[in-house]
Amino acid sequence: MSATADAVVIGAGVIGCSVALELARGGFQVVVVDKAGGPGQGSTSASSAIVRFNYSTLDGVATAWEAFHCWQNWSEQLGLSGGEPVAGYHRAGMVMLDAPPVPGDRARKLFGRLGIPYEDWDADELTRRVPGIDPGRHWPPKRIESEEFWAEPDGVLGALFTPDAGFVEDPLLATANLATAARNQGVRFAFRRTVTGLLRSGSRASGVVLDGGERLSSRVVVNCAGPWSGALNRAFGIGADFTIGVRPMRQEVHEVAAPAGFGPTGPVIADLDLGVYLRPTLGGGLMVGGTEPECDPFEWVDDPDSSNPRATAASFEAKVTRAARRFPGLRVPGRPSGIAALYDVASDWTPIYDRTELDGFYVAIGTSGNQFKNAPVAGRIMATLITEVERGHDHDADPIVFSCAHTPGRIDLGAFSRRRPINAESSGTVMG
């Protein structure tokens, strides 16, 4: 491997591979370094890969809507035509049940501004369109061991349905597709290598040091290290002017057999009323994840490398029992199944796509478990930002506005600044 490049990307997850691809398309010679043995083998591989548009800000919604159009035409987006397997997008639709953290009126206004189709469902329409669902209102979410959890509902719920939402079948394959497209643009990958230091020349980054002492010189370094990103910044002395912090958090996703009538093609269900989300699998299963209800403590992790990757009985019982409250026909198995991985959680659950106080050092971090869907656009955002800043643009004083390629949206990249005010409209959960 050459000891020089225009840009070094740290991390070969879905975000890192997308950033590398778009930088290469812009003329950069790129090297991607990752401690794993291949692309997407960190937290990306555990993603539920849901594509939805419900975010708390206009810029977040615009990013997701633009990304949906990329997933719809994935082969064309990546320029792949060699007959290799390509990750499929399944337009299952998404049912967002009414709940205080995700106000329906706000979503309708944002969807209306961007032309995103949606439908309002009352409880009758909900039960007609989603066989087996119980529309009972249980807010706020409660611990399953409490008597209150088993109380009768105090009303019924409606929902906001977005027909274009859905999921990517295989997040690992999607990331491999990005890596293939990046290689086709000349990107080089250094797997099973660890970045141990940052090179500096005067007041800017000038490359990285790898395990074994090898130096890789570059004029740009991009931190896309996922749950390791915060520790990497601290090790490099980066973050003095950040108003937004990042921290790894362990989260589990479980899989059970879907209840009768719940087909493999959907819909995805976001149920903040009970504190779970549900996503079908093509094999007839149902993925059950959590939406960080206040009754459950967050599981922060100090060392991502020591996090337990196995599902636990406590998390399994809590999440699947809540799902069974919504779908009474859902069977709760006696043994836990599923996986655990780490979110790279930002203070307001909104990512940081930005430069830093050190010239030449950039970050695509704080993805908070909700940015897999946005990866195709995140790569373009970062490539645009890096190109303009390296040309001398003062992004801190005059935030770049990103023009979407597939939709009329224009995204104020100041919304993803490291120095932004904390997003007061955030749900404080994976919903963003």
How would you briefly describe this protein structure?
24% of the residues lie in helices and 24% in strands. The mean pLDDT is 97.
Radius of gyration, in Å, reads: 21 Å
Give me the secondary-structure category.
Answer: alpha+beta
Query: Helicity range of the residues?
Result: 10-25%
β-strand number: 23
Name of the CATH first level of the largest domain = Alpha Beta
Mean pLDDT comes to: 97
Could you describe the largest sheet, including whether it forms a barrel? Answer: 9 strands, mixed
End-to-end CA span: 39 Å
Helix count equals: 9
CATH fold call of the largest domain: FAD/NAD(P)-binding domain
Mass-distribution shape: globular
CATH superfamily of the largest domain: FAD/NAD(P)-binding domain
